[in-house]
User: What shape does this take?
Amino acid sequence: MRIFINMVLSFIGVLLLTAGFGVLLLFLDVGQSLIALLIAGVFVIAGIVLAIVWIVKADAHIGRKRLDAVFVIVSSLLFGLVSLFLCAANFLLYEVEYEMTEATELTPGEKLAYYRQLVTGDDGSVDLATLDSKEIEGITFYFAPGSAPVDEMEQVVKLVKTNHPLLERELGGETDAAVSVVLYGEELDMPIRETIQEEYSGFYKEHDQTIHLPLPIDEVSVVHEYTHHLFYSIAEERGMYSIEIPIWFSEGVATYLSEKGQPLSYDLIQTAEYIAFEQLEEPGGWENHLAFPEDPYYQSRAFMEYLVGKEGESVIREIFADMEGSIFPRSFEQVTGNTVKEYEQEFFTEFERVPRLWDEIVPVELGGDVTESLNAYLEVAEIVPNMESLNPRIANLYLELGDYKTALIYRQKELALLEGERSENLSAAYSYLAIDLLYTDVQQAQEAALKAVEVFPEEGNVWSEGVLAEIEALQAEIENGAPLRAYLTILNGEYAYNQVTDSQKEKILLIDTVLERYPQDFSANRTALIDLKKQLEAELAVEQ
Assistant: This one.
């Protein structure tokens, strides 16, 4: 009976002491917890010493005191071991947090969440077994019970089917690995990205091959995460381990391919602070650099664009293929002839030049030196050909030089960058193309002007609608045998030239082109066009 009572008391005592010590550790960092462990150790040793003294001094016939002392020793040792384990667990939590986010502080609530994950095996992810599911063309979708967002699922399927062969070609591999998609809507909250306290725009889990997306569907996010799926599936089938692939490379490839054809933001080029790629591979390196002015997604995409521009479209699949029997740094050097560090330094140097070059061009352009301005913009295009607002400027300068064909090439480049949009920017680009085509082909100009209205048929798209109306009127006048009157009208019109394009040089070039194109028209309109040209030349001379 005495033994049973001692066992119960010892258990309760150890339980209360360790529970109290554990609660205390929730509020202590690693250094403070070591001090607490040291204090606990002093109490353990003191308890053991006192118990031993008690045993030694006890009367040989008093077995009860000896038994009590033994239980004190055992309880003290047990408390010491549990305290040591709790301190080790506390230290491990900080190590895990640092590895993930480079953070060095944890709140009691965050520690409790980690302990809950440890005990229950729940990593905070949504439990797919609790969701409804539906399979469409080989893709299993998971969603909140009762929601069934069929339109969004079909949208994802269409994007996957459309992009699958294109992405396989870019990656240089094929895979039929199955993929699942978890859709988060009003009934199912998208997880929060801890480092920036914002919802994820999407993420991919390699271990169960699931893409996680918020609603409504963002097409770029779908393609980005599906690229991850193909990338890691091909890598696995080639015997590669994802841990051996730098995160900046996998994210750079996914961002580059999902945003391919979209312009690079000049604002980001101007304001972004670049981070050494090796820093992004350090513990918490990627997550810890997500806040402005750093943007590792943009940086990695820009680097891939720069790499492709220098080495050619096949460079990504060549590096990826070589990694099958090698490691990434060696494969990169094998394919490009430079180390990652050397290429990275070149990339940083060149991209940091762009804002300086841009600032230097402005006064030159304002000074009217077309050739020098053009050469400076072409130098920028060598570094970052897909920068927003660059191609229209180059097109305008070629137009001023009378090189209509090259101007149209750069107009088409701008359109290619904007084709993914259905916005006012795309509409305006088509309208500018239409105006440039007046130098070469009026029918094509009318088609481009019509396209400008069709891609953005919103109320308030006044300028593009005005350009279309003026070009349609121009075409009708030409068909009625009055081409010079038609061009005189549009040059003095409200939209195609006078509202936005107020360049005397362009108008003079158009007049010269038209007079040469219709030499048989000797009407008063020819005289009026010649007079307008003289007026424009006089205005230009005053400005210069």
Summary: The first helix runs from residue 2 to 25. The longest strand covers residues 132-136.
